[in-house]
Amino acid sequence: MALREPAWRVTARELETSLEEEKGVGDRAASYLLSPFAARMNRVLVAGTLSPAEPIGRDETQPFWRSRLTDPTGAVAVTAGSFQPRAMAQLRSSPAPRPALVVGKTHLYRGRDGVGYVSVRAEGMRFVGEAEERAEVAEIVRQSLDRLDLVERIAREPSVPDATLAAEGIPRTWIRAARESLRRYPNVDRVAFRRDLRPAVRHVAGDSGPIAPGPAPPPSVTITRAPPAPPAPPPRTAAERAEESAFLDRLDELADASADGYADLKELVARLADEGVSAERAELVLGRLEEDGVVEEPIVGKLRRA
To answer: What angle do CA 251, 257, 262 make, to 5 degrees?
Structure first.
């Protein structure tokens, strides 16, 4: 049985600068968003002020809602839809900005211009008082600095064995993430990230007042290296090609029938289930088609051909 992925404690700023992915392979394999600061994230916990949610998309029968969580370092979009009914209800429940904790899956959308936009698909959330929110921000800052210390140490001592680091009590997931961070983001200014954490430290100390929701700044991490050529994927089997053909046929049918030109993901999964394709298999097919650049999801829960 697959273990539930841990929720990494991260700031909005770290999410904004995370532009690299690690795609899972095989049935029910997890995918990860890799940060420049030694996080390898499938699920995250973020804390800050959550703005009132707004509906996105035009299909009122398949609602999706989006909010924005602002912490002292920046802001990140938080979404929930009919696949997360409890989280969606919680997201919609507040008419005014309130401190909150949100746990969810990371999602990276890369537009046609190549710019990446990170959001959190909420699995659960809880409105809290300012004291509890500040306590969680303090833990996020502590873990962020510990991870930053680790990645900087490995940069100075690349030959230090993983066993030595683990013996010092450093989680092996952190060690793996730190090494991957250095490989994927060799030119990132990690000293600047320490400066980015100063407002969070002041907030924890009570010097900054409540967090005011605001627009998120654009990502500022630029990757200047030439990425290595990815390994060639294994050839598609006849069964996989048939699944992809059925998926695209139903997607085209729904997109052609919709008012906005998008296929609703939930309806698509339901139609495929009627044809004997499970929801898990549909997610795997979608992942392959997104990775191949055939299908894109410009709006959460809404698909179209790329």
So the answer is: 50
By residue count, the chain amounts to 306
The domain defined by 7-204 carries CATH number 2.40.50.140: yes
- Virtual CA dihedral for 131, 133, 134, 137, nearest 10 degrees? 160
Taking only the tens place, the pLDDT of each residue in 162-188 is 999 999 999 999 999 999 999 999 989
Q: What is the pTM of this model?
A: 0.67
* Phi, psi values for residue 64, rounded to 5°: -135, 135
CATH number of 238-305: 1.10.10.10
Compute the distance between CA of residue 190 and CA of residue 61 in angstroms, rounded to an integer.
45
**Position 57, amino acid:** G
For 52-92, write each residue's pLDDT tens digit.
Answer: 999 886 666 677 889 999 999 999 999 988 778 888 888 88
Cβ-contact 240, 98 below 8 angstroms = no
Q: How far, CA to CA in Å, does 119 sit from each of 21, 45, 102, 192?
A: 14, 12, 12, 22
What residues does each domain of the chain span? 7-204, 238-305
